[in-house]
Write a structure and sequence with these properties.
The chain is of the alpha+beta class. The protein contains two helices and four strands; from the N terminus they run H-E-H-E-E-E. The chain has a two-stranded antiparallel ribbon with strand order 1-2. It has a two-stranded antiparallel sheet with strand order 3-4. The longest helix is centred in the first third of the chain and has 27 residues.
């Protein structure tokens, strides 16, 4: 593996982790959000990664260089958590239901 291939692989990993950190930041910022534009409590975001074959540039293709063992990281999906909200007893909360519970992520 040459230097530039190593940099491309490292860069793909850093880009994927930046996306993950943005999702974590959003999760932390909305931990107490009980009402979203969609109507329910905030759902935690999960980032899904996948290993993808390293893209080759045109010069490498012409030279016939094939490195099948090298993969890069790619974000495949950002999906909401499928678990239900945690119901907490907060009788004075404006979004509490009839049993004085409100849903938090």
């Amino acid at each position: 593996m040459d230097f530039l291939t190593g940099m491309r692989v490292s860069s793909s990993g850093m880009t994927a982790q930046r996306t993950r950190m943005n999702a974590i930041s959003s999760n932390i910022a909305n931990v107490s959000t009980t009402k979203t534009p969609e109507g329910g409590p905030y759902r935690r975001k999960e980032v899904v990664f996948s290993a993808m074959p390293q893209q080759r540039n045109f010069g490498e293709i012409l030279a016939g260089k094939v490195d099948n063992d090298i993969d890069r990281v790619q974000v495949v999906d950002i999906r909401p958590d499928r678990k239900g909200p945690v119901m907490r007893y907060e009788p004075n909360h404006p979004d509490a239901n009839g049993r004085r519970l409100c849903g938090l992520s």
